[in-house]
Amino acid sequence: MFQSTKQKNEIILYIIRPNLHRKLADLCFELEKSGENMNTLDATRAELALAILFLNKAEARDKICRAIQYGSKYLSNGEPGTAQNVDKTTSLARKFVNDLHALISPTPQGTPLPIVALGKSKNALMSTFLFLDQFVWLQRTGIYKNKEGAELIGKISLYCWMAGSTCTSLIELAELGRLSASMKKIEKKLNNTDKYQNEEYLLKLKKANDRTLALVKAVMDLGVAAGLLQLAPNKLTPRVVGGLGFLSSLISCYQLLPSPPKTKTP
């Protein structure tokens, strides 16, 4: 059981205020570390609270809709039917998230100029893609009547997405190279010491794993954009595009999961 009614009320407060998800995670972690025996119902409630916090994120809901959309595309394989209807309907439910603020956000100190330029280009391209994609949405809902104009805008937006994904891939490759070099320097300093006991090395390793996952996702998005543009229709069939989009969406959902709370030393 929870230690007090106050802790229960705190959890409810954190559910209502999703911007405090870190505090909720820390609270649940403290409850697990405490000596009390939580019953199954209490443990389930704590896990459900974290799930609610995840679903409270607009971007998380968008990625779930995206997974459904491309999963349906994979099942339909471009053939008319229920799966294709779900694909088209789900695409209308997705929300517009503007990432223009990333263009003016400061970059980490020490980042090479080429990586900075690629990052700003990626942000500009992805923001343009998201903006132009709204005209496609307006045409599908019947608000924007110019079908030919919407198709042209749709193609331009997909090219922006493909170019943005290319920039992302190049950025992740460059950052992985920088991380690899810094990890080798740490290994040299440690000599025969176990590198997996070194906090700095483990931090670099975690960043490298995150970068690798982001690279895989960017390559998948690149394939999805190329498939939607029908640049290689024989290889990038609707089923392949649907599979790539579905896996990319799952990776996005994983990346949005709350990070585990840090262990607090007494």
UniProtKB/TrEMBL annotation:
It is found in: Peroxisome membrane. GO terms for molecular function: identical protein binding. PANTHER family: PEROXISOMAL BIOGENESIS FACTOR 11, PEROXISOMAL MEMBRANE PROTEIN 11C-RELATED. Its main location: membrane. It comes from the Eukaryota. The keyword Membrane applies. GO terms for cellular component: peroxisomal membrane. Belongs to the peroxin-11 family. This is Peroxisomal membrane protein 11C. The lineage of its organism: Eukaryota, Viridiplantae, Streptophyta, Embryophyta, Tracheophyta. One of its GO terms (biological process) is peroxisome fission. InterPro entries: PEX11. Keywords: Membrane, Peroxisome, Peroxisome biogenesis. It is a multi-pass membrane protein. Pfam families: PEX11.
